[in-house]
Amino acid sequence: MRELFESTIERLLSDLCTPDLVHEAESGEWPAALWRALEDNGFPLAGAPEVAGGADASWADLYVIIRALGRFAAPVPLAEMIIGNWLLEQAGLGARSDILSLASETSLTIGEGRVSGELAQVPWGRFADSVVALAGDNAGQTHVVLLDVATAERVRQGTNIAGEARDDLSFSAAAVVMSAVLPTHLADDVLLAAGAMARSAQIAGAINALLEMTASYAGERKQFGKPIAAFQAIQQQLAVLAEQAAAANVAAEAAFAGADQRLPMFSVAAAKVSASEAASQAAAIGHSVHGAIGFTQEYALHTLTRRLWSWRSEFGSSTFWSKALGEHVCAAGSADFWPMLTNPELQDLSTTQ
Amino acid sequence: MSISEFSYSAIPADAEQLRAQVRAFLSDVLHDYPEEKRAYSWMGFDAEFSRLLGEKGWLGMALPKQYGGAEASPFSRYVIIEELLAAGAPVSAHWIADRQSAPLILRFGTEAQRKKYLPPICRGESYFCIGMSEPNSGSDLASIRTTAVRNAGGWVLNGQKVWTTNAQHSHYMIALVRTGDKETSGRHGGMSQFIVDLRTPGITIRPIADLAGGEHFNEVFFDNAQLEEGALIGEEGRGWDQVTAELAFERSGPERFLSSIAVMHTAIDAIGRQPDALQAREIGKITARLLTLRNMSLGVTRQLSEGKNPAWAASCVKDLGNVLEQELPEILQGVVDEQPQVVGGSAHAKVLAYLTQMAPSFSLRGGTREILRGIIARGLGLR
């Protein structure tokens, strides 16, 4: 299934998700044709069970879809919708087919089926029909809630460095579309972790594209009578870029591979740290090798680098996840350090304590 | 080369089962082995320990049974060696034989060579070193000048090797030497590999003291050393290709990112259960990098197990791994309030002092940073 997913989405995105489309989306246009094509191919429901119209894909399969979104800088909330539908299924609420996003940063409270509070930086919030989030009740229990964006009291538009919509939504005693108690095998940071996992995959895809673009440019651009790729100084920089591309890819893939039972928080943290660090280095090398042309709006390098600069910070920065890992490792002590690295069962990390 | 070829591969359950056995063995045998010795990592020499591993069946594991192996998967071997390294076990005696020489002899050796050399390696009784570098041939390995010339008895060896790890303790060296004319056979032709019995008359071995006073490197001189006909391993003139195949094994293993693991352990002890924000961030970031490198290394192990030669992927692991193991003492000396001490001081102070001094060697041995990045650049099609 993985190969089929990958070839289908890569073909679809390479046809439709052109630099021009990405550019238009950055100025605030919803890429309706692209979204329709993704829907027609079943991607928003790929992880949902077959009875719900999905393909019952594992996280390992979903990895290649989300990585491809990063590779083509796709300006749509598909990763968010896949996660949202996964959480709705986990909570027994059933997957949705209208446009769905998620919010990991919330101060939501729920009582008698009504929700109040703020959702911060909801990806594509203004374009979504509904949003999945978690809300606490006054008995200390956490609920999965589905909110209709149209019932928001206020939508404050925001964008990240890449011109991707990241909107703040506030709700005041809004009726939930659906809700259920958060299943006990999931923690209160489940959306943060799932979001971090998705961004790691997108970063891996974007760095891969950046590597191809930069290596190809270095082979074409001539200075001192030869392609700049012939200079060792350039070769060594591109080698480091390739290492970072590989590191981000393997780290993200490992997190997805372990996600089918429950989210592997330790691997997710490691993936987001590795991918975010790789994003910083890769963007810097991409610009360094490209020189002035890479700094222009006309040349598409920034389509990738501005996303890397955004995604590394979203759903927890390298520092955020490093601190969570470090606190967890120190609390366990040195004797448990190596056993923890090698055994997912011992990696019960939480960011909510 | 495509980055997506470099993919994650979990350790299969049958290999994973070995882990508990190795841990139980190590906690028994090494229960009072001090931290400052664990810091030697794969430079710690203990022939008795190697023999015990041989008894357990944990050396040459991937070899066929008829040569003393267990026909275990490369992942089984991976579990064993990463546990040994994490514990800082003294594995130096057999390390190169198990990692590199045995697979090379299995792949390129004659039946007689396999029967002669492999069973003692599996028993932990036969140690190998690698004769590659020479005084004027470091990164430019193809410029070696040591020669083997055919004569009535086999081959006569003349020249000099240097930076040969463990030569003073080893029984054999697998040496890369020139057997043909460089002018007529091309830059990478005319080289062959020999299994050199280091007791052969005409061979002199001199240890080279390192900056901390230890002796791991050696210079080895060959003065008309007479080798028997059967000393040639593989094909005459194909030495360069054989060495290149061997390097992927040499460059992708966990010893390329775990050399400084001992200082991580002592630093966590020194920091205690409640780190401050800076300590938590640094410890966490190192943890993430270790986990990612291990996953990358397992990805290369899978490619090796499928019979591929993932030269560029192995180079990625070694280069990223060396950067990490060199940075470990640097980062940790900055967040733990203890000074390095060679004599006196805590376990952490001693381990930090040792690894700070050893760290420069991590990106020299097995190929320098620049050479590795050059191999990756070639994989990218840049050269």
Describe the protein:
Chain B: Keywords: FAD, Flavoprotein, Oxidoreductase. Chain B: It comes from Halopseudomonas sabulinigri. Chain B: This is Acyl-CoA dehydrogenase. Chain B: InterPro entries: Acyl-CoA_DH_CS, Acyl-CoA_Oxase/DH_mid-dom, Acyl-CoA_Oxase/DH_mid-dom_sf, AcylCoA_DH/ox_N, AcylCoA_DH/ox_N_sf, AcylCoA_DH/oxidase_NM_dom_sf, Mycobact_Acyl-CoA_DH. The complex is a heterodimer of chains A (353) and B (383). With 353 residues, chain A is an alpha+beta fold. Chain A contains eleven helices and eleven strands. In chain A, strands 2, 3, 4, 7 and 8 form a five-stranded antiparallel β-sheet that branches. A four-stranded mixed β-sheet of chain A has the order 1-5-6-9, covered by helices on one side. Chain A has a two-stranded antiparallel sheet with strand order 10-11. In chain A, helix 5 runs antiparallel to helix 6, helix 6 packs antiparallel against helix 7 and helix 8 packs antiparallel against helix 9. Chain A is globular and about 75 Å long. The mean pLDDT of chain A is 96. Chain B has 383 residues and is of the alpha+beta class. In chain B, helix 6 crosses helix 9 and helix 10 packs antiparallel against helix 13. Chain B is globular, with a radius of gyration of 21 Å. The relative contact order of chain B is 0.12.
